Task: structure prediction
Amino acid sequence: MRLRYADAPVFLDVSSIVASYAAEGQVDGGVTFPPTGSSTSTLGGYGRFTTKPTISYAPLTGDKFAQSLLRPIAPASVFQMIQAGYPADFILGATTRAINGHYNRSSGVNARDADPEFTELTERMRHVQYNEGLGMRVERRENGDATLLFFRSGAEPQLEQEVARVRDLLGIERSPEFNLVYGATARNDTEIALLTRSMLEILLDFSNCVEVPPEHIAQGRAFPGYVRSSAGGPRRLATIHSGASAPDDAYAAVRYRNTWYWVDDTDMNSKRAFAFMMVFFSLAETGTSAPAPVLTIGAN
Result:
């Protein structure tokens, strides 16, 4: 939300979570026999349970900020997620700026629509992935690990046509394997070059999916987001609604600038997108962690 309104974002890292628990119990009882012969009895009880969590936050600055938010995600990590079963069209649309010279949509000062070839390529990659036509492996070499991609051979005719079109869009020869490298364009026809995004760019892309009130855009308070169009293009990462009152059934909701923003609990695509974003954060987590504070927790 802050990125959509051009407010300065603040990123915090949870460095430690410590919880202290205490349980107390007491039972009282007594019986009195006065001389009159009548008896009086008393019974009482008392119990209490308390928990005192201590959460320490550390701001992301310096090398930690640069490594976690500004450094592009490794191309190998992108295809590892695809190999794990995440939809190729969503993963590539969220994490990639360009594939072998075909550019994705972007926002900000360099705002542009996606190339038609990029949209077609990601959709066909999804079809190839669904039919188990794409594979990868990592080789250890003298100058470091190399990630190799390959297409399954001997597939059914329909899959062969999809693979042939993917090869044509990528401009790669009919080699059995292809090197996966970082960059906007490939150096030769045996490479697949991915110009990946940083975590901050992915968050900017998510901010364009927020349906801010039209008057905020008209007043110049917020940037215009992606315009829904029937002309094609990569699908929206998520749908974030806005309104004057709090939602009744929301997966996640926040109040910002006197307006409520939320994701519907029935919107599985948006919920999945937020789950993927947490995975993206883990993939970008390469910087050194800030030293945790020294805490003294009393024992009860």
